[in-house]
Amino acid sequence: MDDTGWNISRLLQLVPYTIAEQIWNIPITAEVQDQIMRKDTSDGRFATKSAWQLVRTEHTIQAVYGMIWSSIIPTTVSFFCWRLWQGLIPVDVVIKRRIGSHMASRY
Description:
The protein is mainly α. The chain has helices at residues 8-14, 17-24, 48-55, 63-68, 75-85, 92-99. The chain has 2 domains: 8-55, no CATH class; 63-99, no CATH class. It starts with 7 loop residues before the first helix and ends in an 8-residue tail after the last helix.
């Protein structure tokens, strides 16, 4: 340990010089107990909500989804429409794209 509080020789064994330099420029003091602080919360404490916000991927909701997943449409029909929208129903166009030939019903 030197006057900054860091063990510089040990630090240089673990990380490249440029990173070690950035680390030893961080002042530390023995008078304050270490604690973990989170940047994604206002008080620095862990919260499940903040962890969820950090890992989830937000997508804009398309208007078509409101029509597909309407409460007046039966769930089975909603799933069928969603699969059709995602290209998961093997209609002629999709089959042609997958196998590279036309269906017998077309020609």
